[in-house]
Specification:
It comes from Streptomyces thermocarboxydovorans. With about 60 residues, this protein is an alpha/beta fold. The protein contains two helices and three strands, in the order E-H-E-H-E. The protein has one domain (about 1-50). The longest helix is centred in the first third of the chain and has 16 residues, at about 10-25.
Length: about 60
Amino acid sequence: MRILIITAGSRGDVAPCTGLGRRLLDVGHQVAVAAHPSFEALVGGCGLDTGLCRETRRG
């Protein structure tokens, strides 16, 4: 199964999602985590694909 986990917030918000993603990866799923680009190393370090979110500003 292909799974995309979408998360926002601080490292404390993103880290639990990487743990969940890693467990899903370990049982055979394809997992990507969409998070702010500053968390790319955290997500990639867990062996997960990254789906980077870009900041948008509304005028």
